[in-house]
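Structure first, sequence second, as always.
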């Protein structure tokens, strides 16, 4: 049955359950369709449906709770893999193309019409005859395809005198789409290099007309009105107005339909999207997620109930990282590191701020400096912004935190006294730091630097595997697990730094959070989150992806709790997922 269609008995179902099934429709073609339906049920408040799916068994993972933090009510139209790079609409039809080359065309009142995969980023349109077409320029060639299931069918191609630097599709009221391309600018000079000329840079247009459609030269249309701004994705440039709603293409590959007044009103919960999260067990045994939010608030969410914090632990602290630790006989502690140059220590049981540590100025990196106009005095140096923080317990029982800053300083802090215990300088600005009871591992993106936790002494430097910089780290036993800027998962042996197998392809770039722990069946796993709107679970020993869980929004933070929960902080969403043995 096509997603979005309704059986006769569906008319008797509660409206919220029908909404859950509609929302899951974008994912029902995948293998874990029951799990996707269960997640959609949580998102729409159909808790009875979600619980029934869990208790019936057969799910590899399930959503314990998902709470919108600042989400505006909207409808999911479709889902593609990779960020949406082209979006169009005409006569109740929506088409989209993702950066991965996947494309689709949907009816706004029903299911998908066409879905397939091309060779790269393209633009799309629907002709007056109702045929869905795709166009793309590569070098001096402009090609036109018809969207078809599986792979597009080529219709026409035009050789260009000058390659294009951009291509867009405009849908005029007459229904004949026009492709608008801007030529690259090509400077040229004579042999003496004394005389230069510039060619190219013109705006060219082609009408997509006929049946079958063909490319015909056409005057370029006047500039269109500015596209509206997506209230949840202000950096997404792809957005068009439908007849009754605003359609947007997200960086997570989701096409969304918003009410025209979606930007008005207060969010359901007055907390912003999370920036970082870590888990801790309180003294009463209840697990909480200590979360730093983008609006400067630090709060603790109950993992069992999904209750938002009644009051924040702290406010006005621009925290970029969170870590939790508990020394023998002491209370559970949460440590935050902020871009404001502060390291804050909290008692998780009481929520009290125990101490604030101001990070010293870092000094300029070698080969770097700041421009200062003549006559303008230099500003006094401020505390070094903190990019990441980790926490552990020293052999003598003292809890310690290690922070890494923008200017490359690793600093050891005693959490009981706030005393600085040691420092080391990286070769460049710091990106991430992690560790355990033995070692601290930090990266600038170019390599892995290992230090002894107790003495802050440098132990080893390991080169990275692959061309892309490393962005985030965690330690799992004898492995260092890292994500790179291309979304691939790396595994390195902590003893000698040798990579374990090839990097594992995963997220569509921009994956900046990873956490390691144990699967309920005992396997060592890593959980990662990316801006492609997915949480991925990896089997570290086998080197393969176990689960790909869609959460519909870019994922900023993930953490693994000791009770097996996966805490997910996404754009406008907080939630807990559970893996099943």
């Amino acid at each position: 049955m096509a997603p979005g269609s309704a059986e006769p008995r569906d008319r008797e179902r509660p409206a919220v359950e029908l909404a859950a099934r509609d929302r899951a429709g974008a994912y029902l073609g995948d293998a874990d369709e029951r799990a996707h339906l269960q997640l959609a049920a949580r998102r729409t408040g159909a808790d009875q449906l979600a619980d029934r799916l869990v208790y019936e068994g057969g799910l590899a993972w399930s959503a314990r709770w998902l709470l919108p933090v600042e989400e505006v009510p909207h409808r999911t139209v479709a889902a593609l893999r990779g960020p949406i790079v082209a979006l169009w609409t005409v006569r109740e039809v929506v088409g989209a193309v993702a950066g991965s080359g996947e494309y689709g065309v949907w009816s706004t009142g029903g299911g998908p019409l066409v879905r397939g995969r091309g060779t790269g980023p393209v633009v799309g349109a629907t002709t007056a005859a109702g045929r869905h077409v795709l166009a793309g320029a590569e070098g001096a060639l402009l090609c036109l395809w018809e969207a078809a299931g599986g792979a597009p069918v080529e219709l026409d191609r035009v050789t260009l005198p000058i390659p294009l630097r951009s291509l867009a599709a405009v849908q005029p009221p007459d229904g004949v789409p026009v492709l608008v391309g801007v030529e690259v600018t090509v400077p040229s000079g004579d042999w003496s290099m004394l005389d230069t000329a510039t060619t190219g840079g013109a705006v060219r247009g082609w009408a997509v007309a006929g049946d079958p459609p063909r490319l015909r030269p056409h005057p370029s249309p006047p500039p269109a009105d500015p596209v509206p701004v997506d209230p949840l994705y202000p950096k997404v440039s792809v957005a068009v107005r439908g007849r009754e709603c605003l359609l947007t293409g997200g960086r997570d590959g989701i096409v969304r339909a918003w009410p025209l007044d979606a930007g008005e009103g207060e969010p359901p919960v007055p907390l912003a999207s999370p920036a970082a999260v870590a888990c801790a067990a309180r003294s009463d045994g209840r697990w909480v997620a200590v979360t730093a939010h983008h609006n400067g608030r630090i709060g603790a969410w109950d993992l069992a109930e999904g209750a938002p914090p009644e009051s924040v632990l702290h406010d006005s602290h621009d925290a970029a990282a969170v870590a939790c630790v508990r020394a023998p006989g002491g209370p559970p502690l949460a440590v935050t590191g902020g871009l404001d140059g502060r390291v804050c220590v909290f008692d998780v049981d009481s929520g009290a701020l125990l101490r604030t540590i101001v990070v010293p100025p870092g000094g300029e990196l070698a080969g770097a400096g700041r421009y200062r106009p003549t006559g303008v005095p230099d500003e006094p140096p401020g505390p070094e912004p903190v990019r990441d923080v980790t926490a552990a317990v020293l052999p003598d029982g003292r809890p310690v935190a290690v922070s890494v800053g923008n200017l490359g300083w690793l600093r050891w802090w005693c959490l009981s006294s706030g005393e600085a215990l040691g420092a080391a300088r990286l070769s460049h600005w710091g990106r991430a730091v992690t560790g355990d009871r033995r070692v601290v591992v930090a990266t600038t993106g170019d390599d892995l630097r290992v230090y002894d936790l107790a003495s802050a002494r440098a132990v080893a430097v390991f080169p990275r595997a692959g061309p892309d910089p490393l962005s985030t780290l965690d330690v799992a036993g004898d492995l260092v697990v890292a994500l790179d800027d291309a979304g691939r998962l790396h595994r390195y042996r902590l003893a000698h730094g040798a990579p374990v197998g090839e990097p594992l392809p995963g997220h569509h770039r921009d994956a900046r959070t990873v956490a390691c722990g144990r699967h309920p069946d005992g396997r060592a796993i890593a959980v990662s989150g990316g801006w492609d709107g997915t949480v991925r679970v990896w089997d570290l020993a086998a080197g393969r992806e176990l689960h790909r869980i869609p959460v519909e929004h870019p994922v900023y933070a993930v953490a693994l709790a000791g009770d097996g929960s996966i805490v997910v902080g996404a754009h406008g969403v907080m939630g807990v997922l559970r893996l099943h043995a």
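Margin note: Residues 8-59 form one domain.
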